[in-house]
Each structure stands twice: as structure tokens, then as C-alpha cells.
């Protein structure tokens, strides 16, 4: 009897050893080929602004950066001759990346992608000294009024 006939013989196909080996191969295949890619696209008007995310420089707009978790990200954007923007953003979570469901998405042989887009409008820098003094006076009086009340 040839080796192939012995391997394909029904009595040897379903042994516990072969079943465990088959399960092991399927488990390796599923974990190797599943993929979840999470990126955020950041754009600005005007383009070319320098972007920091969580105090790490990630590049100039427009850009994509990969992230690992859905949480709060501190974003700072600075453009030449523009007022800097400092804010926080949360990427939107797709349904397949919710807790427990994400385990299935990570292990499936399909590719899942999440790509939220954050757009920022930069304003021209106002370096007028008189305007700066007026804003400072307004803020100082509003702070004093808040302390009195």
C-alpha cells in the first residue's frame, strides 16, 4: 500500500492527532491573515501645516497616521503666518471595532480598515498690538468679575 493511500485512508484521517493538527493549521491561518488597519487622515486649509499628535510630530498636511486605540488624541497644528490650533479629537469607532466584536475582526481572514478624516481651517495670524492689548484687558476684567461673584 502506498503512502498516499495510507494517508487518505478514512480510518487514519480522523484520528485525534490529525484533528488537532488540522485545528492547529486552521488557527495559524486565521491569525496570520486577519488584519485591522486604523489610520486618521488630517487635512487643513491652507495645506502644509505642521501637525503634532499627543506631542509627537507626525508631519505636514495632508497626512495619514496609524493609531492603535479609539480614545482622545491631543492635536496641535501650526502653519506659517497662521494662528496655531490646539484641540482634542476622538476617532469614530466603526461597529466592527467595538469590544468583543473586534476580536472576531482581528482573527478573521478579511481586511478591515478604519479611516476617520479630521479637517482644520487655519486663520490668518493677527499680530496687531492694539488688538492684543484690548483682548488682554477684556480677559483680565472677565477674570476679576468671575472672582468677585
What is the domain total for the residues?
1
Question: Unreliable runs, pLDDT <50, ≥5 residues?
Answer: none
Number of strands: 8
Helices, by number, come to 5
- What number is the mean pLDDT? 82
Most strands sheet? 4 strands, mixed
Computed CA radius of gyration, to the nearest angstrom: 28 Å
Q: How far do the termini sit from each other? A: 98 Å
Query: What's the order of the H and E elements?
Result: HHHEEEEEEHEEH
From the helix content, strand content and strand pairing, which structural class follows? alpha/beta
Plain-language structure description:
- The protein is of the alpha/beta class.
- It has one domain.
- The protein has helices at residues 3-8, 10-13, 16-33, 101-107, 129-148, and strands at residues 35-45, 50-53, 56-60, 63-66, 73-78, 85-89, 111-114, 117-121.
- The strands form 2 sheets. Strands 1, 4, 7 and 8 form a 4-stranded mixed beta sheet that branches. Strands 3-2-5-6 form a 4-stranded antiparallel beta sheet, with no helix packed on it.
- The protein starts with a helix and ends with a helix.
Topology at a glance:
Blueprint lengths: L2 H6 L1 H4 L2 H18 L1 E11 L4 E4 L2 E5 L2 E4 L6 E6 L6 E5 L11 H7 L3 E4 L2 E5 L7 H20 L1
Structure in a nutshell:
With 149 residues, the chain is of the alpha/beta class. The protein is built from five helices and eight strands; from the N terminus they run αααββββββαββα. The strands form two sheets. Strands 1, 4, 7 and 8 form a four-stranded mixed β-sheet that branches. A four-stranded antiparallel β-sheet has the order 3-2-5-6, with no helix packed on it.
Amino acid at each position: 500500500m502506498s503512502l498516499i493511500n495510507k494517508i487518505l485512508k478514512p480510518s487514519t484521517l480522523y484520528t485525534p492527532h490529525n484533528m488537532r493538527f488540522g485545528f492547529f493549521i486552521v488557527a495559524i491561518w486565521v491569525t496570520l491573515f486577519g488584519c485591522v488597519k486604523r489610520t486618521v487622515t488630517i487635512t487643513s486649509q491652507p495645506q502644509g501645516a505642521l501637525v503634532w499628535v499627543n506631542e509627537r510630530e507626525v508631519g505636514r498636511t495632508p497626512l495619514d497616521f496609524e493609531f492603535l486605540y479609539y480614545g482622545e488624541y491631543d492635536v496641535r497644528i501650526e502653519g506659517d503666518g497662521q494662528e496655531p490650533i490646539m484641540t482634542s479629537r476622538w476617532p469614530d469607532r466603526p461597529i466592527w471595532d467595538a469590544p468583543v466584536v473586534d476580536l472576531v475582526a482581528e482573527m478573521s481572514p478579511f481586511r478591515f480598515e478604519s479611516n476617520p478624516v479630521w479637517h482644520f481651517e487655519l486663520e490668518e495670524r493677527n499680530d496687531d498690538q492694539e488688538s492684543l492689548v484690548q483682548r488682554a484687558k477684556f480677559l483680565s476684567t472677565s477674570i476679576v468679575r468671575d472672582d468677585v461673584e
